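Reviewer 2 asked us to include a model.

Predict the structure of this chain.
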Amino acid sequence: MSLPPSDYFDASFAGATQVVRIASFHEAKIFARRWVIRDKEPALKVLLRRMEQANSSATADSAIRELKQALACRGMLVTTSALSTP
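Predicted model (structure tokens):
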């Protein structure tokens, strides 16, 4: 399931030099898997489990919103203003 262009978002791990563009539900799950492996945080494991069990577009949309919220809470959601800052 691909996201509309207005729903693409960028994420980055703390201290990482590269930004990851997340443009589909599949890419979101891959990012979440790697994030769980890296941080081993129980709340992230629950989020990943929800994403992997999503079986409808409504559930997938909800899971992506949760992922974006988790990224934003941890300062990992990259905004366009953050990208344009030298």
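DSSP finds four helices and three strands in the chain. The beta strands are 9-11, 20-22, 77-78. We have added this to the supplementary material.
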